[in-house]
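Record type: ASSEMBLY
Status: queued
Input:
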Amino acid sequence: MDLLEYQGKQLFARHGVPVPRGGYAATVEEALDVADGIGYPVVVKAQVQIGGRGKAGGIKVAQDRDEAREHCEAILGMDIRGLTVHELWLEEASDIASEYYASFVFDRSAKATLAMLSTKGGMDIEAVAEEDPTAIAKLHIDPLLGFQDFHARRLCFEAGVDADVVRGVTVLLGRLYEAYEQEEAMLVEVNPLIVTGDRQVAALDAKVTLDDNALFRHEENAEMRNVSAEDPQEVMAKERGLTYVKLDGDIGILGNGAGLVMSTLDVVAQAGGAPANFLDAGGGSKAEAITSAVEVILSDPKVKAVLFNIFGGITRCDEVARGLITAFEQIKPTVPFVVRLDGTNDKEGRALLAEANLANVHTVATMDEAASKVVEVAR
Amino acid sequence: MSIFVDSDTRLCVSGITGREGTFHAMNNRRYGTEVVAGVTPGKEGQDVEGVPVFNTFAKAVAETGANTAMVFVPPRFAADSILEAADAGISLVVCITEGIPAHDELRVYTHLQRSGDVRLVGPNCPGILSPGKANVGIIPASFFKEGNVGVVSRSGTLTYQIGNELAQRGFGNSSIVGIGGDPVPGSSFIDVIAEFEADPQTELIVMSGEIGGSAEEEAAEYIAANVSKPVVGYIAGFTAPPGKTMGHAGAIVSGSQGTAVAKAEALEAKGVRVGRTPTQVADIAVEILGG
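Status: finished
Output:
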């Protein structure tokens, strides 16, 4: 789960990472109240989950109340690379002397957490990495030892942090790691980490990705889920316990097991089709889950045909067939379905479908055939 | 021969008294796996269809000589259960549980690496099947027979799909190993491929990967340097968009890393033929081994 900047900053603050004083607003009037409380100049920041907000005009400094109103009115409702701005974060303007970069990221290849620090912050760190890899100090952290002060000092000296703020950056990094580990994040990134004119350090931005699998023991974080930014079909699927990812095409896909569904998307694409979604009905899907899944797939108006690709292991093909038959009774779909059932109880499943004789349902034997057929009927 | 599980396997099931745990433990026993014990804290003295239940792994191992564990407990208890099994002297832990927090996996992985002599397969995997010998996990064994193709995969149902395509061309399997779709799998492609290379029954290795991480790229390097047997690859997720997790916690393309194209190219560059569909994987297997 990706957090918005202000959510990340609130999470940082809980662990003592210094962040500028600020407040949240969803309307212009709320924003002006917050701005008055902070005092001027104040920074108005669009809260959307995408980089490049500044360049798109989503971050502005206001010298007074009138200017703040002007900026808030312009930014609320603004479109930033396809995302509409519904929320603002306002914070005190900072006196920036230097911009650094700091992050902790769950490095799967190394099977350890990677800590990174650079004095070339404020810009795209991937560009820095490309132009001058030596500008980024890196260190892998032993998860059983944790991140110690000496690790932080080593990063500071390697990165060339100004000597008078090594202590401040060391403390900040220690707290940032604490936030990363205790909140079970996959990424915490501060860009820029600023040094102010009076030589204080603070996180001026916050990018945080939390581990979805750990949310059960972080109730406070689970509540931060930013439902308004999520796709409505994805929200609906989540509520029903299905794994659904919306894609751009017009062929609805349902399968069981993440790998098989990914493979199904690929085979459909190779057959010349464009999948509308990824939907994993999961192992051992019962009829109700299948009915529910059909509803989710068809809630996307772009869907012109649906492919069921089931290889039954724990999942029983007769259960899948029953779910599909119920879905037809309840939802009465108007688009064609192509169904491939193989594995546990496949004969029973196919027999049920044959008996039900559903209009516009094509039963096929193999995955490749299923893909060509669904592309054909979607035309 | 086969790898990891066979007729010497003595299985202890963690979470045997749960619905899923009982169902699959009994399925494994019906297949011929020796299921000698179960562990559920607080339920010692009970039995599940004749399999004795113990409070701790330590006691289960002491009383029954269990050498393999299958973990079926919910995510919040799974890391602890893996560590308990390892501590009790179990040499192979197969963790089926899906949804274990990544930081738990990282700590478990690091600890097991250091202790040295315990192999973890999974988590979030379908288990291991050595046809004709033993089944530990949830792989539907009826689709597979004994043979000379070793299969290693990050996915469950996709493994069955590929296995079934191979079976239809007449191939059987030495072992089928699901390493799981999580960010920190206990065993990697390399770990399993090394075992297949050393296993006399295995004549062809099929590896089925997916987007996310760099395990397939690392396997490509390893194969080029260390593997004499033919390897056929498959990668799922060519159409997956960046930044979206495709079902498995580990299946996510971040930036330019971990795409299906990059993985297929890495394998092909090292001489591993990659099927673009599960059917093509079987076609290539026929070409290599003869129909």
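Annotation: Chain B is about 35% helix and 25% strand.
Annotation: Chain B has two domains: 10-121, 144-289.
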